[in-house]
Design goal:
Helix content: 25-40%
Largest sheet: 4 strands, mixed
Strand order of the largest sheet: 2-12-10-9
Radius of gyration: 26 Å
Shape: globular
CATH superfamily of the largest domain: Dipeptide-binding Protein, Domain 3
Number of domains: 3
CATH architecture of the largest domain: Roll
Number of strands: 21
Length: 668
């Protein structure tokens, strides 16, 4: 590895300007829309739309072949399901984004190594999830089976039927059956000790106050989920790529392993002893269950550590997990093959370097310690990475975009500050803020110009219009310093509560400058993330910047809803969730938002009904602008090995990271 001192790092950072690479790196065109499949039918959907694989003849990595020869593993034909998932052109990433080719197995020393400032984000396998369904790329295009060989949904999205791939196995070789489905449903999802609040995705009508979905087990491989009220887009998102990080664990968990930690199955004395041995109270079985992988899902993949005790369905298994390095190796029972019958993944080993903070990531990269990174690279550091590209085993890729906004400006509608609420409740005020912000300046200063403005916002950037709208909103008086006044004569403050992270600080500073040009006093209150979270949960935020999955995800609108991100209308949300028993009644324009969101969530995304609801949602959004995404289709700087194959040349970068099983090292 190349070593670089902190002094050298700072010197190079200061000397290299971003202009030299911004000029050479025009933003790639936005990903082309994928054609939406036709109306759903009651017939099972076809298996993955890929080339048929060889029948009964498969190949495997040399390391696995050696274990077979030694008698430590069964032959590859016995490890694969009867119908393996066949990976080929257009299966995991759409054709127009990737020139797919059959890969090669990695050689000794060829490792995909990532970096992050916490264990969850430090290794590539965090992004190599498996889902019930396969939706390339990310909840668009044909929805096909992944862990299942077939699936179907009825016309009103109340009955879903699935059939597992026969012979699908956990990473320890134990077959996957509907026993695992039933266990996860009855003993995890419906167990209040393990799941105090069931996600609305899994309820009638995708509603927080809906009844839990039902389960019907047909046989060892086939089961149905049933709803009393339609649950379409939201449930399909949970089943497929829409729920990127939670993957299959919402629906399938290894009963044969986890039952030893469950009060229903384990001997009470043994369970208490295990809890005490783990440093817990004798009665804390639920926490023990969770710590052993029972709450595995969402963003928390730390349960995969401890030498891979928890059986998985992923391409790789954790083998070692020291504090500063996570090591994962190939899953010998992985269920996918390429078009020539080669069992995937191609790469034997993936690793994740864990650093103390985000500021340590650039030094780790230029020192040559990693070669495969996304979403942790600041645009302002790209020139530095290019400078050290020749001496390291990576290349900088700038032709894919983020899977989201990536950040947006949110207004808290439910603070105790009456002057604040009187202003932000008016659409004219929010329209004025939108008109005052120069989004192109944000794109240029934060993202080297490699992005576009959000099409859901009126394209204004007009200070005169902003001033007129502010006057119309009742902020037409100013003090001696030129700052706008509340109707009661006090100075209006657009307080921004900002986490101490460049992702949030820099756009906040630009927005402050823009708003103060139209007379809005805009103090920035900087704080650590932990304090920000406390203030958010206490409903004490005013305005703030946060992550946002915007119109790049046409059927996942939760980031615009009050119960997401900065929790920007907690009292209105509570009123809606409790049918008016708690909270405060929202105004009619907010009720309209809830209604449109409901239509989208319960309808099948492949139908004209959903498309119509989305179109009306878009028009509503342009008028009421409750949340302001600051950019979209922003280039996501990535690092990949110089000889990496099956890396997309367009589209979402996350599509590549969620299909790592097809990435390989080229040897010619």
């Amino acid at each position: 590895m190349n070593q670089i001192t902190r002094r050298e790092f700072l010197r190079v950072s200061a000397l290299i300007g971003v202009g030299s690479i911004a000029a050479a790196c025009a933003a790639p065109s936005a990903p082309a829309p994928v054609e939406v499949a036709g109306e759903p039918t009651s017939e099972p959907a076809a298996a993955p739309a890929g080339p048929a694989g060889p029948i009964g003849k498969y190949s495997e990595a040399p390391s696995l072949a050696a274990l077979v020869a030694e008698g430590q593993l069964p032959p590859v034909e016995e490890r694969l399901p009867a119908e393996p998932f066949v990976v080929g052109p257009g299966v995991l990433v759409v054709d127009e984004h990737l020139d797919w080719e059959v890969g090669e197995y990695s050689r000794e020393g060829e490792v995909l190594r990532s970096v992050g400032n916490d264990p969850v984000w430090s290794y590539p396998c965090q992004h190599s999830q498996e889902h019930i369904l396969n939706c390339p790329p990310h909840h668009t295009g044909p929805i096909t089976g992944n862990l299942v060989s077939s699936w179907s949904v009825n016309e009103d999205c109340t009955v879903y039927e699935f059939t597992l791939r026969k012979g699908l196995k956990w990473s320890d070789g134990v077959p996957v059956t509907t026993e695992d489905i039933l266990f996860t449903y009855e003993d995890v999802l419906l167990n209040e000790d393990l799941t105090p609040v069931l996600a609305s995705d899994l309820k009638d009508g995708a509603a927080p106050n809906g009844e839990p979905m039902g389960l019907e087990v047909v046989d060892d491989f086939t089961w149905r989920y049933t709803f009393n009220e339609p649950n379409g887009s939201r449930f399909l998102a949970r089943l497929g790529m829409g729920n990127l990080w939670a993957a299959y664990s919402t629906f399938i968990r290894p009963k044969h392993y986890l039952q030893q930690f469950h009060i229903k199955y384990a001997d009470k004395a043994d369970l208490e002893a295990k809890a005490v041995a783990a440093g817990l109270g004798a009665g804390e079985w639920a926490r023990l269950f969770q710590d052993e992988g029972g709450n595995w899902g969402g963003m928390d993949c730390w349960h995969m550590v401890e030498e891979g005790r928890l059986p998985v369905l992923r391409p790789w298994i954790v083998k070692e997990s020291p504090p500063e390095l996570i090591i994962m190796e190939r899953n010998p029972y992985y269920f996918k093959v390429d078009t020539e019958g080669n069992q995937l993944p191609y790469v034997e080993r993936v690793e994740g370097v864990v650093v103390s903070d985000l500021e340590s990531i650039p030094m780790t990269i230029v020192a040559g310690e990693v070669n495969f990174v996304r979403e942790r690279l600041r645009h302002t550091d790209v020139a530095l990475y290019k400078e050290h590209e020749a001496e390291n085993d990576y290349k900088v890729v700038l032709d894919m975009v983020y899977h989201n906004a990536p950040v947006a400006l949110y207004f808290n509608m439910n603070t105790v500050d009456e002057n604040w609420c009187q202003a932000v409740w008016q659409k004219e005020f929010r329209q004025a803020v939108n008109a005052a912000i120069d989004y192109q300046e944000i794109i240029d200063s934060l993202y080297l110009g490699l992005g576009t403005a959000c099409p859901w916002l009126p394209d204004v950037n007009d200070r005169d219009q902003a001033n007129a709208l502010l006057d119309q909103a009742g902020l037409d008086q100013r003090d001696a310093d030129g700052w706008r006044l509340n109707p009661d004569g006090t100075r209006f403050e657009f307080r921004m509560d900002v986490r101490l992270d460049p992702l949030y600080v820099k756009p906040s500073e630009v927005i402050k400058a823009h708003l103060e040009e139209v007379g809005i006093y805009t103090p920035l209150k900087m704080m650590e993330a932990a304090l920000w979270n406390q203030i958010r949960d206490a409903n004490e935020l005013y305005a703030s910047i946060d992550w946002c999955d915007d119109c790049n995800w046409p059927f996942l609108k939760d980031d615009f809803m009050p119960n997401q991100r900065i929790l920007w209308a907690q009292l209105w949300q509570r009123w809606m969730e409790t049918d008016g028993k708690e909270g405060e009644e929202p105004p009619d324009w907010m009720k309209e938002l809830y209604g449109l969101h409901k239509e989208i969530m319960v309808s099948d995304p492949r139908t004209s009904v959903a498309e119509d609801a989305l179109a009306r949602f878009t028009e509503w959004y342009k008028e009421y602008v409750p949340v302001l995404p600051l950019a979209r289709d922003v280039v996501d700087p990535c690092l990949v090995p110089k000889n990496a194959g099956n890396i997309a040349h367009a589209g979402r970068s996350s599509a590549v990271w969620f299909s790592l099983e097809q990435v390989f090292f080229k040897h010619t």
